[in-house]
Structure formats: structure tokens, C-alpha cells
Amino acid sequence: MTKKVVLNKNVNRLVDEYIRRTGISFDDLTNKALKCYIVNKLSSKDVKNTLKRKDPDTYPIDDILKNGFGNWINEQ
Questions:
Q1: Residues 6+ apart with CB under 8 A from 50
Q2: Which residues contact 60 (CB under 8 A, 6 or more apart)?
Q3: 12 CB neighbour count, 10 Å cutoff
Q4: Which element (helix H / strand E) includes 39?
Q5: For residue 18, how many C-alpha atoms fall within 13 Å in the half-sphere facing its CB?
Q6: How far is the C-alpha of 64 from the C-alpha of 10, rounded, in Å?
Q7: Which helix (H) or strand (E) holds 51?
Q8: What is the pLDDT along the chain (76 residues), one digit of tens a residue?
Q9: In 3D, which of 31, 12, 10, 32 has the Cα closest to residue 20?
Q10: What does the alpha-carbon distance between residue 2 and residue 70 come to, in Å, rounded to a whole number?
Q11: pTM of the model
């Protein structure tokens, strides 16, 4: 899957310096950085369930609504 990433001036400078020092590709750096950030923001249960799903391009919206908004979303 291809996504466009627009870096601000300071982040671009940091990325360029990191790539220069380490030789890592921009794609590998982006994947590692995003994974690290997202894994630290989601619960371990959410990470495990997301990685177990067969279809990586879909997310069970019912789970998001139940977990993200609590029971009040289901009240009538």
C-alpha cells in the first residue's frame, strides 16, 4: 500500500540526518517509526487483535465504537 507522507521542515532535516548516519531507507524508517508510535498508543489487546485479523484493510467499526466510546454509544 502506498501512502504519501508530507514532512515539515524540522522533521525533514532530522530524517535526512538520520538516514545519512544510519543508511536506513526512508520506507524502512517510516514503517519502524509508525509501528513504534502506534504500538505505544494502542492497548496490547488492540495491537494483538489488529495483527490477528485476516483482512488488513478493514477494521471492525463495532469494536472501535464499543471500546473507544464506552457503553453510552449503544444506549438509546
A1: 42, 59
A2: 53
A3: 11
A4: helix 26-41
A5: 14
A6: 33
A7: helix 44-52
A8: 788 889 999 999 999 999 999 999 999 999 999 989 988 888 888 888 888 877 656 555 556 555 655 554 445 4
A9: 12
A10: 33
A11: 0.61
